[in-house]
Predict the 3D structure of the following.
Amino acid sequence: MENIRIAIAGIGNCASSLIQGIGYYKGLGRRHPDRSLGLMHHILGGYRPDDITVVAAFDIDKRKVGKSIRQAVFAKPNCTKVFNKNIPDYRVAVRMGEILDGVSHHIKDYPEERRFIVADKKPSDVTKVLKQNGAEILLNYLPVGSEKATAFYAEACLKSGVSLINCVPVFIASDKAWAKRFEDRNIPIIGDDIKSQIGATIIHRTLTRLFIDRGVKIDNTYQLNVGGNTDFLNMLNRTRLKSKKISKTEAVQSQFRNNPLDDENIHIGPSDYIPWLKDNKVCFLRMEGRGFGNIPVNFELRLSVEDSPNSAGVVIDAIRCCKIARDRGIGGALISPSAYFMKHPMKQFSDEEARDMVEEFITGRRER
């Protein structure tokens, strides 16, 4: 199979984990007994993880701009675990991206090794770079709350004919106006707001369906998350969280179908920034309900995961689904992959339904 040529906006922890992972699975070889470990699909639509290659990258941090991908993925303020130093040599230098609203002002009060330091460089012509380097798909890994910056990269995709996988909670693929523009250009798009493989949202959704399917009435629930990466530092600015809170809350509320909880009975959102946790994310989840005979049922869970590899395990499938859509000439919002891989797709389904839809999409039995 030919390579899948991707560009990345934001060379942070998530990009680091994805790129490390591509090299990791390539290094295992195609007959290694662990070649499928950590993957939902080792081969998807004929494509393996190591068929993905990075042809362009954008960031705004002076420790990354102008550096090679190999250098940038391990540069501060990245703090995710290093599980593979032997990453592919893409011979790609990180270009200066547009800042717009991508950097929150409050982070200047924190140590340099934990925050962004904006490079004194002129932004590159993103559309031109995407075209010149033959990019097929752009991954958007910008910070939460980057509404204008995300819209800028979405426009660049439309101008260059490049697909967008929107991993952040800015509503592009799930917005009818944006989705129509991608459909009119016959450009596939997947979004919005990436789920983790085994993360807070997917577990909360699954438990919600379990309670309901087993006849338990849920009265109250909360999900609180803490971590020490730049994502959690960025989210200390609560004005940047509107879309994030909507995305995570709707992902859970959708599992109630026609009987969602009142707003005062459900609380989902980031809680705090704890620097020493680094890229480790800790979720505290509680559900309160009533079962047979109106007897209370209370549930509490503590989940601890390395945040960015957890995301990369889903993105690697989203990339390959987007590629097979391009191979088949399918444009617009990809309903099935978005429903399974994203927290805020255009249309919500149960995870079981969405998984079946994705499998049908991969085999060609479902168009989108």
Notes: The longest strand covers residues 217-227.
